[in-house]
Amino acid sequence: MTTFYSLLKHFHLTTIVITATLFVVRGVWMMVDSPRLQARWVRIVPHVNDTLLLASGLGLAFMLGQYPLVNGWLTAKFFALILYIVLGTVALKRGSTKRTRIAAWIAALLVLGYIVTVAITRNPFPFVG
Ligand code: HEM
Questions:
Q1: In total, how many domains does the chain have?
Q2: Residues enclosing ligand 1, CB less than 6 A?
Q3: pLDDT of the chain along its 129 residues, tens only?
Q4: Do the domain assignments include residue 34?
Q5: What is the domain range of residue 11?
Q6: Which of 100, 114, 84 is nearest to 22 (CA)?
């Protein structure tokens, strides 16, 4: 494994910790109707981070020679990431009632947990036998 690969992997892991932390914090702000959710940096930083998360994941995939839509675990991660982003926008922006937003927030966190499990096991069905 090259140094660059391991640097990129650490970078990938760092962006994952950042996305999870920001998502939990923003969810709490959503629940207590905090105006901080509308702060300029809060509307920018998560998007920049999530772009870097996706880019570093794709970079690792290419260096490994394993690809979304070819290798099952990366296909699962890729589509689950899209689901996480969609659920995240319902939770923090588009959900019309607080009930919907909280449900979407919990679902997004479960999807994030699924992605981490798939990443570690390299198995798209980590909870099946
Ligand atoms: C929210 C989204 C994501 C999360 C939570 C996530 C999580 C992780 C974690 C925890 C690892 C380390 C696994 C280990 O220690 O063995 C990892 C590795 C990896 N991720 Fe992601 N990832 C995400 C998105 C992506 C995407 C979109 C791609 C590519 C399309 C990707 C490609 C990879 C690759 C190729 C590795 C392998 C590194 C290795 O084991 O050498 N990831 N990811």
A1: 1
A2: 9, 12, 16, 53-54, 57-58, 60-61, 64, 68, 74, 77-78, 81, 84, 112, 115-116, 119-120
A3: 789 999 999 999 999 999 999 999 999 999 999 999 999 999 999 999 999 999 999 999 999 999 999 999 999 999 999 999 999 999 999 999 999 999 999 999 999 999 999 999 999 999 886
A4: yes
A5: 3-121
A6: 84
